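TL;DR need structure tokens for one chain.
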Amino acid sequence: MKKRFSLPAIGLVLAAVTSAPLAFAQTLAARIAAAPDRSVQFTYPVRPGVCGDGRTYISTGSGNFYGSFSTNSADQCLTGPVRVLADLADRNVIALRTYVGGAATVETGVTNLGTVTSAEAADYLMGVAARADGRVGRDAIFAALLGENVDVTPRLLDIGRDQNRPLETRRAALSGLVRSDSRQLDRIGPALVQIATNESDAQGVRTAALSALSRLDHGAGIQPLVQLAGANLTSWVGREAMTVLARSGDPRARQFLRSTAQRTDLPDEVQAVALRGLGREYVTGQDAALLRSIYPRLTGQRSQDAVLASLSELGGSDNVQWIVGLVRDEKLAPEARRRALQYLTRAGATTPALLALYDPITDTEMRQALIGVYSRLADKAATDKLVWIARNEQNPTLKRRAISALSRNTDPVIRQALQDIVER
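>> reply
TL;DR here they are.
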């Protein structure tokens, strides 16, 4: 016998089905609130790529580890359900601990609510994040994003925009957008730009928005960052966008930095950001050559130091020899030459190369700086050079400086040489 259902009855069934997630979420919240113990725990399915040891760490993939991890524990990273342990006080969540993998043990004094759906868990946890003070909100967002087939983009955006939420919670929400469904990118990108350009908002949140843009899937946030930086170079958001671009490694970001670094119409501090960004993690030999060619046109100390810092960190014989040339160049201002000397020691210049600078240089202040470098080297060749200066230097100021540097040396041979020099 066939059963027939009236349209109103079918409507009631559909209504019950579509409202089921909300009912389950309310049930979880109510069950937690009614728990007889001061702690409760529940588990839910984990999203692919996430594992842990059930005790000390969680891996979300691509070398991202949270908690206490050592290389000896790599073979213990197990895929398993997410287990959330919530501590309660006055029916409020005051702490959250999240685990993945391992056996779902139940501690004494903990009410075990068993397994719930990822959607149910995420709905509850995002509700906690939207209300909680302190670090609970951040921890709730982290736990929610571990669930299988969970997309909480709208709620992350709501929290990220909410200036009444704790700063750390908002930053966690914006960072969480990076793991959102790629189909939401058209919505996420403009929202992050809006937050980043909101001058009334906290700079920590605006920086988090820019960072999230740089990490969106498929490089979706790079072009908005380039546009932000290009249109606002002299403002805070422009400089911060450029700093974020320098860390992205995206070819479009690198090209923007190269173009900006060569401009001659920018304030010193702005050009320094572009130059420093160009010379960081993704610098190439061609970039180094470009930085060396730009340096003679620079007039500001910040931009000059940005080039020197980048090249000294990169090192290599070409860069060392170029900085040596600056130290020797008597056409440069003495202060510029002394700063070049400081960076030369960081670039990996050898002791013989540094010792060879003293005799050709006639400037007293430069020679004083070199004596300081030799005293810090503290190897035999540098010490011998200091002894030579103490014995043969005609300038009394330099002679005293060398003797002062040697006086800290406890080697009996050096102390005897010093005595001979003083008594002479």
